[in-house]
Specification:
The structure is a single chain. The longest helix has 18 residues. The strands form eight sheets. The chain has a 14-stranded parallel beta sheet with strand order 11-12-15-20-23-27-30-33-36-39-42-46-52-54, covered by helices on one side. A hairpin with a 5-residue loop joins strand 25 and strand 26. Among the domains are: about 80 residues, Winged helix-like DNA-binding domain superfamily/Winged helix DNA-binding domain (Arc Repressor Mutant, subunit A, Orthogonal Bundle), CATH 1.10.10.10; about 160 residues, 2-Layer Sandwich (Endonuclease, Chain A); about 230 residues, no CATH class. Helix content is about 20%, strand content about 35%. The termini are far apart. With about 725 residues, it is an alpha/beta fold.
Amino acid sequence: MSFADNFYDLLFEISSEDRHKLLLYLHGESANLTNISRNIGLNLPETRRHVTRLIEVDLIERNPNSSYSITNFGKIILEQIDEIAFFANHKDYFQSHNVDSIPREFKKRLGELSNSEYENNILNYIRKMETVIKEAEEEVWLLVDQFPLNHLTLIVEAIERGVRIKIIEPINRLINPDLEAMAPEETLALDRMKTTPLLEQKMLEEINVFMCLSEKNCVLDFPTLEGKNDYIGFVSKDEKALKWGRDLFQYYWERSEPRTLITPSLMAERTRPVSAAEKSNQIVVVGRERPEYDAQAIQDAVDNYDEIILKGRFNIGTSTITMKRSVHVRGEGRTNDIPDTKVYKKGWNFPFLSQEFLLIVGGDKIDVTIENIHIENFNGTCISNRHGNSVTIRKNRITLESGLGRGLSFGNWGDHVVGITSGGESMDKGSFPGGILIEDNYLDFGVSFARGGFISNKGFENSPDYRPDLQKHEAAVCVGILLNRNLGNVVVRNNVIRNMNSRGILVADNWASSDISIIKNTIISEVFGAYPYNSPMAGLGIFIQNAWTEPRSGGRVEVADNKIVCTKVNYSGIAVHGPAMYQDGAGKLEECIVRDNEIELEDGYIGVQIRKSDSTIVKNNKVSGRVYYGLQISGSKNRGGIDLTSHGNIFKENDLEKLVIKEPDDYSDGNVNGYTFTGEEGKSRPAHVWLNPYASHNVIQLEAGQTIIDEGKNTQTKRL
């Protein structure tokens, strides 16, 4: 390389200590000769001479107001001088330490370390490393020559604060820590490190710089000429140095491979580099099917990352994962439209007297998405959405071999097992004003239904008179999706819900501002019903009720384009109920529409039931199979000042052509009470439509040949 004469002229002019001082002074501000002279300690003639020489090589310039300022060219040269000064000041260090092996682009940027503090005391250097970890709030990146056993406790403390840790180690020095030689607290710390996705470890063929870096501190040193780490180097809080360290670490991270623990005599198996978790707000968590690891790993991930990708199988034991911040959790991959990621709970005792959850969503103004996960086993409630701004539950699969042996036990009311609950967690406060979306999920709480539908009692279970003994756990009370205490829009669509022996979808106790849509779901039950809450119905496909356990009126509900198929005895299709409690505040739904649904009951009780509810529109539905009543509209006596009649409901354009009305039998004749069945002197009267005496001003449209029992008041009946 040849250099022009002006290069040597430049070197000569900047080699003066006085001219260097002058440049440093003008780098901060413009000044006239008098101020320059005074601030750099020279007389005016000397100052004028130095200024003239610097102008000649274009390092400074004269301004129109007779002041002087540094040029852009001067700023660049001054920066290079500072970098050369850094190396000159630490000549002995760079004589004995190797910087040749770091990438060339970073070697050219070594001057960015010029504002660093040199630390040549080994103990002080190690203390500074500890300070980096102690003071970190967001991240710690370690580029080390061996696994950092001496910093285990500090790393775990950082993890507990939510700090994300990345470690790169040399592949030829990867060893399993000697657990037998470790103190108990060190072993616990190592276990904690194994459980968290906040810690990521990679390996590199060769480590050419040693570094401990956080978002606000950096400690680094270079290997000696013999390739050793002598713990003598540089400490800095300067942003340039931090950026140099971050860039270099990221360079090595992108070229590293996932860490594989090996014995000293075995080289690590080479694996494909992974890049899915490179974004700072995303993490991939791999299941180990060990509850002592899996539960904590998922919890750490949802506590600290915005997007969590779950991969493999996870056994979370008896733990519950709680989401208190906005987060998107999704499983990786699908095979035959079934999520590849599996999560399950295991290890609880039965019966259970306290509520159990697998996932809880609950945090102020949070937005949460859970999707593409197969939850294979749980106890109590699988996903409980308690409060937040919005929640989306999409494309998940929630299955149980049987609901038996699970659920919160309520004595005579049975053991309750619920797939998804969404709504406020307290009686006086609703939640999710930003809306709830539950779509494309598959729920089945009886994948082993072929072994008898869970109830087997010498064939008695096939009788409509039979009731399982819920207190003795003969049947669980299984609910697919429960929507309660909601404030805003709720959409439940395109879900498949199988083998819920109580309620496929249950809507209850929502606020007047709620707007709930239940659309295009498929609900199938092939198991015997639980007859929950002393109901004459074995189970219900879709159940809508306001003021069930709380005095509330409820908002708007639309039930449309759903398919309900129930094969066992005494199931009903859709029911819309008014208040079940009679206190101030209990009222009726603002609006309810039941339209375009297909209901097939093989040996059912009622197709559609309206009870103690007003202004429900039931239209364009198709009801088929065998039932005692296609439609029932009933009310009861007013209580506590609450209107419990069924008023102004409309039943029109419904297809009952393939609906067979059962003949009276011992069961129907034995339950003539004006509520379960109507009739006289122990003789029941099934029909296509039955309105009891507390139904008034309802509108009924029937096809020719369809039967109606009208005990109500002012019914408008139209036959086509």
